[in-house]
Design goal:
The structure holds two protein chains of two kinds. By secondary structure, chain A is mainly α. Chain A has one domain (2-186). Chain A has helices spanning 2-18, 37-45, 63-69, 74-84, 97-117, 125-139, 145-157, 171-186. The radius of gyration of chain A is 16 Å and the shape is globular. The two termini of chain A are 29 Å apart. Chain B has two domains: 1-113; 119-232, Formyl transferase, N-terminal domain (Rossmann fold, 3-Layer(aba) Sandwich), CATH 3.40.50. In chain B, 41% of the residues lie in helices and 19% in strands. Chain B has nine helices and ten strands. In chain B, the strands form two sheets. In chain B, strands 3-2-1-4-5-7-8-9 form an eight-stranded mixed beta sheet. The radius of gyration of chain B is 18 Å and the shape is globular. The model of chain B has no long low-confidence stretch (mean pLDDT 93). Classes of the chains: A mainly alpha, B alpha/beta. The A-B interface holds A 101, 104-105, 108-109, 112, 144-146, 149-150, 152-153, 155-156 and B 138-139, 211-220.
Chain lengths: 191, 232
């Protein structure tokens, strides 16, 4: 974790100042993946190269229904998303529009309201962070500012000293990396 | 036309009541459902207190007359509850005016002959959901009001009665502009009721295809405020 954070810190410092992030493209259909989604998210956050070979989309006709059905089962939802987006850039595929809207809506309505009215503790941190990471990846690839603003909102909402007791709490760091990238895509950095 | 103003708070409903009550051919009622954060009894007591305050502060007998004429209806349950729906049905309303902070269910909407009208501070179908004034400004689009018959979705009701651009260039902050647009319900609801009474019911279609917007971040709100200041 410490190595990952240090590496990201150095890479982001350089990238933001020179505005040089590796160029991402959304898949025309679907990108094949040879690694697991969490490793791929770490690679993307560190701006490492990721193989983007077009492939056919997996046949999972019930994925969206299962995703909707899992709104009260965060661990199940985490598994569903991690399994579908082995290559995280696939979240930007045309076919995923309904999924993206669903993720955005859950984050900005139900989850936001639960955090504001109760506390962050009521949510599963890994599930929340994975969904935010996926939204953040898409925010760099779209002109739809609602996705970037969801990141703005959560940046303002989540305490800077939030250290959730979660298995994958490095997802906080990758989220910041994707957020900075999305900001740099949409706005010019002035030192 | 028999009209019911649906609200949680007497004060907000009464402001609208004053705007529509004196229109010709209108029988206007106020229907108060319990606030989601209070019990039916405390909601009712709070609203009776508001009624007295409104009467005394404005030296206005209209609120008391509403009570005496049984035009002020206190529901004991939420609007979708069977007992509330029955009460509304028995009063045989033509139309409802939305002033309560809820998303309505079909049973409630169908208890009104024509449906429930909403005054939305954005142009539909392009701007659905929250913070639509801010998003319209940020994207350089027209700011305006849409009066439409609601359905159970978020600003997806198909029948748009009025859609009108509004000039907010005189306002220097989003908060002020928003307040102005919300208060225009006292202008647009009467307009809509007049159209319905005159039988001029040509509806525009809200195809619900516009994206749903959400609460805007402080960062973007500051940008929008700056935009408003530079254009005003």
């Amino acid at each position: 974790m410490a190595y990952f954070v240090a590496r990201l810190h150095k890479q982001l410092d350089t990238a933001v100042e020179s505005q040089q992030f590796r160029n991402w493209t959304a898949p025309k259909t679907w990108f094949a993946s040879r690694c697991d989604s969490l490793a791929a998210i770490r690679a993307l956050a560190a701006d490492d190269p990721l193989d983007c070979t077009e492939a056919s989309q997996p046949e999972e006709p019930h994925f969206f229904d299962e995703l909707q059905a899992s709104i009260r089962e965060p661990q199940r939802r985490f598994e569903l998303l991690a399994t579908r987006y082995l290559h995280p850039l696939n979240v930007a595929a045309f076919s995923e529009q309904r999924v993206r809207e669903h993720l955005l809506e859950r984050l900005m309505v139900a989850d936001r309201s639960r955090i504001e009215q109760h506390s962050l503790q009521v949510l599963d941190a890994d599930d929340l962070l994975l969904r935010l990471n996926l939204i953040a990846i898409y925010a760099s690839l779209t002109t739809d500012l609602r996705y970037l603003d969801a990141l703005n909102y959560y940046y303002e909402l989540l305490p800077s000293a939030w250290y959730p007791k979660s298995v994958h709490n490095w997802l906080r760091v990758s989220l910041l990396s994707f957020y900075i990238r999305a900001l740099s895509v949409h706005f010019t950095y002035v030192a | 036309m028999r009209t019911g103003i649906l609200a949680h708070s007497f004060s907000s409903a009464f402001v609208l009541y004053k705007a529509v009550a004196d229109m010709p051919d209108q029988e206007v009622f106020i229907i108060l459902s319990p606030s989601p954060h209070r019990s039916a009894l405390t909601s009712r007591l709070a609203n009776l207190a508001r009624l007295i305050v409104v009467s005394l502060s404005g030296l206005d007998i209209k609120p008391l007359r509403l009570l005496a004429n049984r035009r002020l209806i206190f529901l004991r349950s939420p609007l979708h509850h069977q007992a509330s729906v029955e009460t509304i049905r028995k009063l045989r309303f033509d139309v409802g005016l939305h002033k309560a902070g809820v998303i309505y269910r079909d049973v409630t909407i169908n208890a009104f002959r024509l449906g429930i009208l909403n005054h939305h501070i954005g142009i539909l179908p392009a701007y659905r959901g929250r913070s639509v004034l801010e998003w319209s400004l940020l994207k350089g689009d027209t700011v305006g009001i849409t009066v439409f018959f609601i359905d159970t979705g978020i600003d997806t009701g198909a029948r748009i009665l009025i859609s009108e651009a509004i000039d907010i260039s005189g306002y220097k902050s989003v908060i002020e502009a928003k307040k102005y647009l919300f208060n225009l319900d006292q202008v647009f609801f009467p307009k809509a009721l007049a159209l319905l009474t005159d039988g001029e019911r040509s509806f525009q279609l809200n195809d619900g295809t516009g994206p749903r917007y959400f609460v805007m971040s402080k960062l973007f709100r500051a940008v929008v405020d700056r935009l408003l200041q530079t254009t005003s």
